[in-house]
Inverse folding.
């Protein structure tokens, strides 16, 4: 069992490495991609400078805390899309039958598939995340917590991408739904949750669980609290398990189903 | 000893149907209609250890679906499959260590890496210690003549070289059975021939059982001792290559363009398919008359252009059906 | 002129089949507007409060209009197409044709924009009305004036993007320049009216393309003043001439270079 896990990690690591090498073939494109992503993120600081010149507390966050939120959001989505880019294309893989190649390998289909590509510009997101942390004020504690929550949040984001993408096992071409859910997450994540009311708040705790990805972690970095910390971890485990269950249920259906989309 | 036993295997698909035009599109949004296609109908066969067997049939005959079921990608609706004592549905992972697969239309290799790095990667997937991977790579490098390009990124290789690498990659873990789904698709005849020779050599060397599919009769003619012809999801023939050759591949089609009009009459061993004066199409039964004899009848000096080909697979299949009707 | 109208018409027809894609793109538009609705709702303690001369509804309508203008442009596609034409040498085929590449690109892309604009405009306005339950009161003449400025804004925007795309005659990849342009429009031009920026940079923004391609029309929609309308139109005509000349200048320089280098 342990060697199996070790071997799986080795293969996933190798495929991430190879995927990165593939992107680095063209050095200039590689570096411009990263730099432009950092600049891209930085542009939005203009927006917040203006908003904070009107009001110095927006949705419960001050300017510096907002930068930290931006940083954490960039970090979570950066980590997620860098290491598990393919998780965001599961729908397509299901419809095109790309999963078949992984099905004949003696490894975990889901893990092998999601680590098969990387999104290079996300390295820019990750760098940007730490620049924001630096501006906010870096300490050993904030660094450790920040990194932890980046990874933790990334796990939730990837798990959700898998869940939304796996809907294709049942409903066929639903890339649209998956893409919309993923872009909903990204769009909302950079705004403080305090500005939203009612139903959106409920969504933040359920199908777009940004509370556990970004908002509670931000509060924890500012002011640590063990209870919330444990809840965040529990929720993460819940979403990961759910993703695995749904994906494998879907895979069973994929293999036994009589639905022929593109594949013959 | 049988390594593959398939009994009464069936699989059907539901395919969305759509009426023509905008109205049809709108209708299909509200209520999708499905058409049931029986991709595989109640097929049974078994394969012995070390055997090379070919599935041939036109596109959509059910070859790929059968291979997918044998490798555990698809589950059958009905029937049972036993591969090396394993059930592909329940023991997919275990089975994966024992079999190798090459899907001609789906690449498994990383195109920016060299074949060598790719092989190392596959070694990791199958949990093979590095020293053994090295040894195996060297062995297969010889066998498949990869020396010239083992350190060239895959994207710079020709299609034929790529397929050779795909096959080697699927052999790294010393599978007992190798599944090749349309391995020669899209290759030119010379390269095809080359791949066939290599597959044959590999089979001889390692005694690996090989199951391959193709829609090209010539693929099988030289490679396999046994042929299974499938059409519309059913096995229409499961026989030795020798018998198939004797009964169905003994006919050649001669398509000739003549300078002057020839008056040719049906005689033993020659059937006239088309006679338009200057353009002539005849079928020669080589059991009764050799091709050269047939050409003599045409007067070689009179021929402007000539093309001699095998009887198309579709023709053979319909011949087999006719035979059955008798 | 007739041939350009024909190019325009056939492109409109072609793009009719992409309506579903446009509607899909509208989802992200909805999300953005929804977020701004919440944001301004939070920042304005009372909807009638004025911040830099705008009340809450006006702020949201402002973003609604600027986003409509930006979304319908589909500029990245245009820039990429021009870059590809230049780099693949396709443009060489156009040199011999009895039309001008700049005008051809303009009318061709206007065909793309028309369908997008109609869809996004109708839906965007409808969404604004649903969210805000009100709409700035404009009379028929004012609406016509507003739409005229939208048209001019679009033409200028397309010409500027064509000019950026044509830079690839001289450098490897013009897409980063497009990226810079788009960020400038998005960050400075769509979210906030000029009045929200520090006094020092306001004149710079007013002189920049932002004034004619996004601020101008949107400002007229939320608060139509005839004097403002005249300002915008005059500025747009000046920019139209400038951008048109720049395009032709770069194109003729580029073609010369192409002839020298043999593509």
């Amino acid at each position: 069992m342990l060697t199996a896990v070790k071997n799986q990690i080795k293969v996933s690591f190798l495929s991430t490495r190879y995927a990165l090498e593939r992107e680095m073939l063209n050095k200039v494109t590689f570096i411009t991609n990263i730099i432009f992503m950092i600049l891209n993120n930085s542009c939005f600081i203009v927006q917040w400078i203006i908003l904070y010149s009107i009001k110095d507390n927006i949705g419960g966050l001050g300017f510096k805390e907002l930068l930290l939120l931006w940083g954490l959001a960039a970090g979570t989505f950066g980590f997620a899309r860098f290491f598990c880019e393919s998780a965001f294309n599961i729908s397509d893989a299901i419809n095109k039958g790309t999963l078949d190649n992984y099905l004949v390998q003696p490894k975990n289909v889901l893990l092998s598939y999601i680590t098969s590509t990387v999104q290079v510009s996300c390295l820019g997101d990750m760098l940007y995340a730490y620049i924001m942390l630096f501006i906010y004020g870096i300490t050993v504690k904030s660094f450790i917590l920040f990194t932890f929550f980046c990874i933790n949040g990334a796990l939730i984001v990837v798990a959700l991408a898998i869940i939304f993408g796996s809907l294709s096992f049942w409903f066929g071409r639903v890339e649209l739904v998956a893409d919309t859910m993923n872009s909903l997450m990204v769009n909302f994540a950079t705004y403080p949750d305090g500005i939203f009311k009612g139903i959106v708040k409920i969504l933040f705790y359920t199908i777009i669980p940004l509370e556990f990805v970004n908002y509670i972690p931000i509060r924890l970095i500012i002011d640590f609290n063990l209870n919330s910390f444990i809840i965040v971890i529990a929720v993460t485990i819940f979403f990961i398990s759910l993703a695995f269950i749904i994906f494998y249920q879907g895979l069973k259906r994929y293999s036994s189903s009589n639905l022929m989309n593109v594949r013959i | 000893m049988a390594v593959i036993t398939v009994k009464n295997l069936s699989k059907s698909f539901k395919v969305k149907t759509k009426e023509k035009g905008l109205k049809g599109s709108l209708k299909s949004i509200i209520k999708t209609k499905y058409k049931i296609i029986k991709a595989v109908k109640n097929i049974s066969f078994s394969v012995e250890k070390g055997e090379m067997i070919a599935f041939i049939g036109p596109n959509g005959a059910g070859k790929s679906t059968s291979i997918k079921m044998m490798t555990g990608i698809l589950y059958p609706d009905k029937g049972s499959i036993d591969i090396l004592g394993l059930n592909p549905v329940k023991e997919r992972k275990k089975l994966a260590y024992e079999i190798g697969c090459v899907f001609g239309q789906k690449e498994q290799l990383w195109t920016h890496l060299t074949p060598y790095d790719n092989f190392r990667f596959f070694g990791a997937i199958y949990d093979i210690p590095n020293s053994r991977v090295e040894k195996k790579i060297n062995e297969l490098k010889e066998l498949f003549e990869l020396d010239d390009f083992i350190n060239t990124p895959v994207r710079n290789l020709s299609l034929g070289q790529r397929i050779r690498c795909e096959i080697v990659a699927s052999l790294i873990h010393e599978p007992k059975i190798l599944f090749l789904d349309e391995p020669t698709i899209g290759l030119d005849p010379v390269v095809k021939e080359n791949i066939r020779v290599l597959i044959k050599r590999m089979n001889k060397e390692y005694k690996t059982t090989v199951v391959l599919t193709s829609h090209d009769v010539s693929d099988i003619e030289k490679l396999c001792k046994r042929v299974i012809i499938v059409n519309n999801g059913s096995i229409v023939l499961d026989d030795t290559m020798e018998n198939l050759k004797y009964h169905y591949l003994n006919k050649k089609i001669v398509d000739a363009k003549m300078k002057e009009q020839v008056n040719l009459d049906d005689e033993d061993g020659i059937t006239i398919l088309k006679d338009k004066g200057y353009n002539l199409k005849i079928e020669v039964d080589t059991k009764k008359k050799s091709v050269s004899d047939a050409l003599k009848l045409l007067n070689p000096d009179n021929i402007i252009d000539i093309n001699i080909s095998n009887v198309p697979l579709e023709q053979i299949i319909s011949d087999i059906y006719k035979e059955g009707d008798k | 002129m007739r041939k350009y109208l024909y190019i325009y018409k056939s492109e409109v027809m072609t793009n009719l089949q992409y309506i579903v894609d446009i509607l899909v793109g509208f989802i992200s538009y909805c999300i953005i507007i929804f977020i701004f609705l919440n944001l301004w709702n939070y920042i304005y303690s009372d909807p009638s409060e004025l911040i830099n001369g705008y009340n809450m509804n006006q702020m949201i309508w402002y973003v609604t209009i600027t986003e409509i203008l930006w979304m319908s442009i589909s500029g990245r596609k245009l820039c990429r197409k021009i870059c590809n034409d230049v780099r693949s040498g396709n443009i060489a085929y156009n040199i011999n044709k009895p039309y001008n590449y700049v005008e051809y690109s303009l009318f061709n892309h206007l065909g793309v924009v028309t369908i997008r604009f109609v869809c996004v405009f109708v839906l965007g306005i409808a969404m604004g009305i649903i969210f805000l339950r009100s709409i700035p009161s404009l009379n028929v003449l004012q609406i016509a004036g507003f739409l005229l400025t939208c048209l001019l804004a679009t033409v200028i925007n397309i010409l500027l993007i064509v000019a950026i795309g044509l830079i690839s005659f001289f450098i490897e990849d013009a897409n980063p320049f497009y990226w810079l342009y788009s960020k400038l429009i998005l960050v400075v031009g769509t979210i906030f009216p000029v009045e929200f920026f520090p006094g020092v940079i306001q004149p710079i923004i007013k002189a920049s393309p932002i004034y004619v391609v996004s601020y101008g029309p949107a400002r007229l929609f939320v608060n139509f003043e005839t004097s403002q309308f005249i300002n915008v139109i005059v500025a747009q005509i000046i920019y139209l001439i400038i951008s048109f000349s720049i395009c032709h200048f770069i194109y003729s320089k580029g073609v010369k270079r192409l002839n020298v280098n043999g593509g």
Notes: Residues 29 and 67 of chain C are 8 Å apart (CA to CA). The two ends of chain C are 29 Å apart (CA to CA). The first helix of chain C runs from residue 2 to 15.
